[in-house]
Write a structure and sequence with these properties.
Number of strands: 12
């Protein structure tokens, strides 16, 4: 049976899991701020764009390695396994490994779910992985809830895919079936930020008044007032006309009006909204170019907290999803997946070299281990491990000090009488 024939074969009776019901419903409802929040409008915010881009790029740029467990408990790269090449180099004919990982992670960060169709060869081995937009996938399940299927829409055609032919990376989930969309669940926060941005654009686009009022000495009619207002807007409206020189005659007067409290706190409002979006994605501000509170003393520690508190959860989601969806049960005892976050954990050159020196002199790093981490070529005879000669286990009985060797007695010279 061919791949597509197998995908369209009848399955057991299914019921909609309503995986996108709430998302579709919320997309049609305005927030309290009067903003309709969708994935597209949310990505129009620079803070959302930056958070999603940085998280997905940091996930995509790190090597994703498939390992084989050895009998002695150590590991080795499973470079001879077909999945190694797919995940490390090229998952399909169109996408690179970087593009594939970034697309799936962006879908998780926006929609809560990342999908890739698993194409197998005639022997059942994974031959290709094709990413699918989450909007084109509906999750289905049997009435007893034990089996999952995926209804995929491609080019107007629908296919039903069993769970063993779909790679599914979930975000936060309440039911263990469908991930939760951050955009849908945080729509009020994002809508508030969009409203503030629109207010700012309108504030600068319609700033016909240089923070004041034009006072007329006598009453004028509506037609004259409209003409005066139109002339004023033409001369002073918009950022390009800001601070133009105004000349008054005929008794006109200008009264300066200070910026009201709402306008005065606009900048602080934008900063607070950006911080709220950073919190949604657990993003330290310096990673999205917000350096207001960054210092040389704390930025390195914030980088470590970002890897440990944010990215490590993403890596674990990916590795366990790959383990579940790509490996056969007979392979799961032998193979597993890991991201290599070393590139994100490197300190400055002085800190790295000091750490290498400690590892080398204490016997848990070899010369080639260090050169591998610094992307340097290996050297011959560089896999040896050394340890100081004056170290011994603490339970070793202390040996008595060896007395110095006795000096040899000098023979008395015979003297002839």
């Amino acid at each position: 049976m061919g791949v597509w024939q197998r995908l369209t074969a009848p399955w057991r009776k299914e019921t909609n899991s309503q995986s996108r019901f709430w998302l579709d419903l919320l997309d049609g409802i305005k927030t309290v701020a009067g903003i309709k929040v969708t994935t597209k409008s949310a990505m129009g915010l620079s803070a959302v764009w930056a958070c999603v881009t940085v998280r997905s790029e940091d996930t995509a740029k790190l090597p994703l390695i498939m390992y084989r467990r050895r009998k002695d408990g150590s590991k080795e790269r499973a470079i001879d396994h077909p999945l190694y090449r797919l995940l490390h180099d090229r998952p399909n004919r169109r996408n690179t490994a970087f593009e594939f990982k970034q697309m799936l992670q962006m879908q998780v960060d926006l929609e809560g779910n990342g999908y890739a169709l698993i194409i197998r060869d005639g022997r059942g081995a994974v031959a290709e992985l094709w990413p699918i937009p989450s909007k084109d996938v509906d999750i289905l399940r049997t009435k007893d809830g034990r089996d999952l299927f995926y209804r995929v829409t491609v080019g107007g055609e629908q296919f039903t895919v069993p769970s063993e032919d779909m790679l599914h990376v979930r975000g936060n989930s309440l039911d263990g079936i469908c991930g939760m969309s951050p955009i849908a669940w945080q729509r009020e926060t994002i809508g508030h930020a969009i409203a503030a941005e629109k207010y700012g654009a309108a504030f600068f686009g319609n700033s016909a008044q240089p923070n004041g009022a034009l006072v007329v000495p006598t009453a004028i009619g509506k037609e004259a007032a409209d003409k005066l207002r139109a002339d004023w807007k033409e001369r002073f409206q918009g950022p390009e006309n800001a601070h133009n020189l105004a000349i008054f005659d005929g008794g006109f007067d200008w009264k300066q009006i200070g910026m009201n409290n709402v306008d005065a706190q606009f900048v602080e409002e934008r900063k607070w909204q950006n911080a709220e979006i950073y919190r949604i994605y657990r993003m330290p501000p310096h990673r999205v170019q917000d350096l207001e509170r960054a210092t040389n003393n704390n930025i390195e520690h914030q980088g470590l907290e970002y890897v440990e508190g944010c990215l490590m959860s993403i890596f674990e989601r990916w590795c366990q999803a790959l383990f579940r969806d790509l490996l056969l049960e007979s392979e799961q005892a032998q193979y597993y997946f890991e991201f290599l976050p070393d590139a994100l954990l490197k300190g400055d050159i002085s800190a790295r070299y000091n750490a290498y020196a400690v590892g080398f002199t204490n016997g848990w790093l070899s010369e080639n281990d260090i050169r591998d981490r610094e992307n340097m070529n290996r050297i011959e005879d560089g896999d040896k491990y050394y340890r100081p000669m004056n170290l011994q286990p603490i339970d070793t009985p202390q040996q008595p000090a060896t007395p110095p060797p006795a000096k040899p007695k000098r023979l008395k010279e015979k003297v002839d009488a």
